[in-house]
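Dear support,

I submitted the protein below through the web form. The confirmation email said the job was done, but the results page showed an empty box. After a refresh the structure appeared. I'm attaching both so you can tell me whether what I see now is the final result or a partial one.
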Amino acid sequence: MNTQYKKGVLELCVLSLLQKGDRYGYEISERLSETIDIADGTVYPILRKLKSDGLVTTYLQEESGGPPRKYYSLTQEGLETYKNDRAEYLDFARAVKGLLEDEEK
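What the results page shows now:
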């Protein structure tokens, strides 16, 4: 798949996963890689940007038998951004799909 397609939507995908619940970085990366072919380390710069933009916060949580994990959680602003970006993306995807399907007729 064209890497430019992925770059434009990965941030939205990360926000989508976080709106379903708090997650740690590796968990986000693994979940995305089940659906989208991404390189190792792709998610962490996105998470840093989301945090610096105030869309996510972090906290450490102790795990039994292991070191604490850094969890990411959506802020209210992050949730609002997700909802707006999701609506815009779905409108855009429908428009592109319509154009592509018109070519087949």
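Response: this is the final, complete result; the empty box was a page-load delay. Residues 10 and 46 are 8 Å apart (CA to CA).
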